[in-house]
């Protein structure tokens, strides 16, 4: 005899829960110990989660069962993470027990752009006056003398571009040149990109305007995985922008991954965790992947997990129908959004 405890049902109609034998042994743990199964991220809240991870690690090291042909892939990312783990100067990045807003890793910043996959571009406030002065002078130059005849750019060139969004001039770098005068540019002070087809919107950057480094700093939200569905990602992006508004916020680098700062964001006055609020609304997914699990536990990660648990219990946002999302449910039989 066995005992089945059902906790929820995923979008594919599959039961999510626990299976134990008559003598109280976990069937999941037995399978993992035998090398017949891998630990799924949904097991994070299981009482025997630590045992599951230890059993999986043992089988992986000893190449048992599904791990027989497993090969550890050494990537630059893993090397960077290992280096960070062993760097005493970075210890407090992973082991903070309290949020100290006097920490030097907190900086005042303005969010200038957010992509559909929740990459965040920041402008640091201490450079705000310099950027504002540069923009004012750049626009005055082009308001006095309108470029004519069209400018033929080179790939990688830093130039001036007139945005189709507001018809204002900004510094931009040419990323790609295609036929029919399709010029892909990246606005180095704001983080957004666009394709310009009218060469009259491009001009050589006036002397002296390349001295200030690009003010858009690309970041990603720490411990956050974007929703798999386009509409859900757009909703999360809109909620993040609405939450921040046009106000300054506090950003802290929690760790680096793929040479990109993974950050947390806070309101300056209330010190509220902005990302936590999104998690409580069920708009984002807190990553439980192996790379995250191997990092030291932090207060921030625990807070985000608790916020996500609240959203799941209340069936908010992504968790309206299930504790599983499409990416996770696929292996259980779900193959499409309903």
Description:
- By secondary structure, this protein is an alpha+beta fold.
- The protein folds into 3 domains: 2-72, OB fold (Dihydrolipoamide Acetyltransferase, E2P) (Beta Barrel); 76-104 and 222-321, OB fold (Dihydrolipoamide Acetyltransferase, E2P) (Beta Barrel); 127-204, SH3 type barrels, CATH 2.30.30.
- Helices cover 29% and strands 25% of the residues.
- It has 10 helices and 14 strands.
- It has helices at residues 27-33, 49-62, 76-85, 91-95, 128-144, 230-244, 274-280, 290-293, 299-313, 326-329, and strands at residues 2-9, 15-21, 106-114, 119-124, 158-162, 169-178, 182-187, 193-196, 202-204, 217-221, 224-225, 249-257, 260-267, 285-286.
- The strands form 4 sheets. Strands 3-4-10-13-12 form a 5-stranded mixed barrel. The protein has a 5-stranded antiparallel sheet with strand order 8-7-6-5-9. Strands 1-2 form a two-stranded antiparallel ribbon.
- Helix 1 packs parallel to helix 2 (49-62).
- Residues 73-96 and 329-338 have low confidence and may be disordered.
